[in-house]
C-alpha cells in the first residue's frame, strides 16, 4: 500500500508531567483506568518505586516528549500540512467546544453531519460524544494526582523537567502549549 502524505494533522498533547504519571500507572497496573496508591507493603518496595523505577521512567518518557517536540517542529514547518494542536486539558474542560472546533477543522466549515451520518444532527453527535467522554468507566480514579506526587517527591519532577527543558525546541514547545 502506498504511503499517503496527510493534508491535515490533529496533534493531541498533554502536560508532560501528567502524561508521565498516567503512563507509569498504566504500565505498572496494566490497566488504563486503575490507579496506584503509594501505600506499599514494605519500605523497600516504596523506595524502589519512588527512588528508582519512577524517576528512571520519568526521565525516559521526558526524552520521548522531546522527540514529540521535534515531530511538532517538523510538522508545523511543513507548508503542505495543516496542523491543529489540541491540549488534552482543554478537551477535558470543554469537550463539546473542542470537538466542534475539530469538526470544523476536519470538514473546513462544512457540516460534518452531511458527510458522516446524515441521520444525526451535529449538536446531537457532539452531546453524545461528550456523554461518552465523561463516563466514569473510562477515567482513572485518582488516588494521587500528578501534582500531589510531584509536590511530595519533587526530585522526580525536577529530573524529568530538566530533561524536558534541555533543548530550545522542547522549551519552545512547552511554552507554546502553555506548559511552563
Order of secondary-structure elements: EHHEHHHHHHH
For the sheet with most strands, the description reads: 2 strands, parallel
| Shape designation | globular
Mean pLDDT equals 80
Per DSSP E runs of 2 or more residues, the count of β-strands stands at: 2
**Termini separation:** 42 Å
Q: Indicate the structural class.
A: mainly alpha
Spans of at least 5 consecutive residues whose pLDDT stays below 50 are none
Rg from alpha-carbon coordinates? 19 Å
Q: What's the number of helices?
A: 9
Please state roughly what percent of the residues sit in beta strands, choosing from under 5%, 5-15%, 15-25%, 25-35%, 35-45% or over 45%: 5-15%
Percent helix, as a range, is: 55-70%
Strand order of the largest sheet: 1-2
Give an overview in words:
The protein is globular, with a radius of gyration of 19 Å. It has 180 residues and is mostly helical. The chain has nine helices and two strands. The model has no long low-confidence stretch (mean pLDDT 80). It has a two-stranded parallel sheet with strand order 1-2. The protein has helices at residues 16-29, 43-77, 88-93, 95-107, 112-115, 122-133, 146-152, 154-164, 168-176; strands spanning 8-13, 82-87. It is 62% helix and 7% strand.
Keywords:
mainly alpha; 7% strand; globular
SSE diagram, text form:
Elements: E1 8-13, H1 16-29, H2 43-77, E2 82-87, H3 88-93, H4 95-107, H5 112-115, H6 122-133, H7 146-152, H8 154-164, H9 168-176
Parallel strand pairs: 1-2
